[in-house]
């Protein structure tokens, strides 16, 4: 389902046209894939806010599918993220 994904809000635009209800146009970036989508929300709709925690990760490798493998330097847990999340900067990632 659309709202079961995590998004990063890129841009918002509030509009009120005539006697109609006000709407908010939101440009979103899907965190998992990096794809951008636009969505219109009514002013009475709500979204769940997710709080982000900053952590230090070490670059391990990039697989043939473009998935980047990172390792948490404190717990040694590995995290796989899309190369698109880093954009053009992905080519500058180096081990340690």
Automatic annotation (TrEMBL):
This entry carries the following GO cellular component terms, namely: cytoplasm
Extract one GO molecular function annotation from the record. translation elongation factor activity
Q: Name one Pfam family in it.
A: EFP
Segments forming domain Translation elongation factor P/YeiP central? 67-94
Coiled-coil positions: none
Q: Which InterPro entries match?
A: NA-bd_OB-fold, Rib_uL2_dom2, Transl_elong_fac_P/YeiP, Transl_elong_P/YeiP_cen, Translation_prot_SH3-like_sf
Q: What is this protein called?
A: Translation elongation factor P/YeiP central domain-containing protein
